């Protein structure tokens, strides 16, 4: 008998054999949710845990749900003809997966003192003598903690940073001067924490971005290059907050400047024609041409009796030889009239 022996269930459901001496493969039935790997346990562990297997954690980018399944840390937004997957708050896309953001190491938690990262979130806490208030801040409630330890500290002290030893501490964004026990602002900009512009502030710092760039949607990190992207058409400008609405004369929507016009158009939206005849009176170079403005361009036209012989404006118009073609003169019509008159005169002359 090699199957699971019902009589063995009293102490282990994954033992077989008449004497429950055979350890069966508890993973044979694939008991773990999709994405989790099953690990068959040793008999001793099976007894202590009350089950024959362990399921691995979900792969990176997935969360274990209440029913032990792996759930991608994203939600789905339907779009016209397709869909997009957006990471849930507290996660960001790394490759194709949504991974937890470590707000503690990236210093975006806002915690004054202690920060504990968790999947999709984080928790702030305060040392003894302080109580946690809104937004991760710590409010001092007991004021003689340090003096009782014979310490003079500008901010506070605790014995958890170096377990068993009391020492002065500073809140996040400040550094300790060990000699005086005082805390001073850290200039994070010196450590190149920002991708582009950095402004140091007391206790923190502010990153900003060149015109034509913006922080990615999961703006929970301020210091990693790939999280800043150039504006994507049709957006442009500071933080990509402006939108191009370009007219017919636009060459492109520039991520920094917005609509960039070709030479024949102007205006913020490239929808105002340039009157080349006014802007550049000499544009139709030879005096025998007349400039005519048009939307999106201009024409250099020849005067009456002249014709263009080249598309190049600097080439003068040529005289039209109207006599060379019956279609360009009316001389033959006059000739016909004379011919008709002559016979009359002849008749009269003959009669006289
Ligand atoms: Ca987190
Ligand atoms: Ca600072
Ligand atoms: Ca024009």
From TrEMBL:
It comes from the Eukaryota. Keywords: Disulfide bond, EGF-like domain, Repeat. Residues 273-312 form the EGF-like domain. Pfam families: EGF_CA (PF07645). PROSITE patterns: ASX_HYDROXYL (PS00010), EGF_2 (PS01186), EGF_3 (PS50026), EGF_CA (PS01187). GO terms for molecular function: calcium ion binding. Gene3D superfamilies: Laminin. InterPro entries: ECM_structural_protein (IPR050751), EGF (IPR000742), EGF-like_Ca-bd_dom (IPR001881), EGF-type_Asp/Asn_hydroxyl_site (IPR000152), EGF_Ca-bd_CS (IPR018097), Growth_fac_rcpt_cys_sf (IPR009030), NOTCH1_EGF-like (IPR049883). This is EGF-like domain-containing protein.
């Amino acid at each position: 008998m090699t199957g699971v022996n019902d009589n063995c269930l009293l102490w282990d459901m994954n033992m077989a054999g008449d004497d429950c001496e055979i350890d069966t493969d508890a993973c044979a039935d694939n008991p773990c949710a999709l994405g989790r790997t099953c690990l068959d346990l040793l008999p001793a562990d099976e007894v202590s845990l009350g089950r024959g297997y362990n399921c691995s954690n979900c792969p990176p980018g997935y969360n274990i749900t209440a029913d032990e399944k792996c759930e991608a840390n994203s939600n789905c937004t339907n779009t016209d003809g397709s869909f997009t997957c957006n990471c849930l708050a507290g996660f960001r896309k790394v490759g194709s997966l949504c991974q937890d953001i470590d707000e503690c190491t990236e210093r975006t938690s806002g915690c004054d003192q202690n920060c504990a990262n968790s999947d999709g979130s984080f928790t702030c806490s305060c040392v003894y003598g302080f109580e946690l208030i809104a937004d991760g801040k710590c409010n001092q409630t007991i004021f003689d903690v340090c003096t009782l330890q014979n310490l003079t500290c500008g901010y506070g002290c605790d014995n958890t940073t170096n377990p068993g030893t009391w020492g002065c501490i500073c809140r996040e964004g400040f550094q300790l001067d060990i000699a005086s026990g005082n805390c001073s602002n850290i200039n994070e900009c010196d450590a190149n924490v920002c991708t582009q512009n950095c402004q140091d502030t007391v206790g923190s710092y502010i990153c900003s971005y060149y015109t034509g760039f913006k922080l990615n949607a999961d703006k929970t990190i301020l210091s990693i290059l790939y999280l800043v992207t150039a504006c994507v058409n049709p957006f442009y400008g500071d933080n990509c907050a402006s939108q191009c609405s370009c007219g017919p004369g636009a060459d492109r929507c520039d991520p920094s400047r917005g609509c960039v016009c070709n030479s024949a158009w102007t205006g913020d939206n490239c929808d105002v024609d340039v009157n080349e005849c006014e802007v550049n009176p000499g544009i139709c170079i030879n005096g025998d041409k007349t400039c005519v403005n048009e939307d999106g361009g201009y024409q250099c036209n020849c005067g009456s009796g002249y014709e263009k012989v080249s598309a190049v404006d600097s080439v003068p118009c040529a005289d039209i030889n109207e006599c060379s073609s019956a279609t360009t003169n009316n001389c033959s019509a006059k000739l016909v009239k004379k011919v008709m008159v002559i016979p009359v005169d002849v008749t009269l002359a003959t009669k006289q």
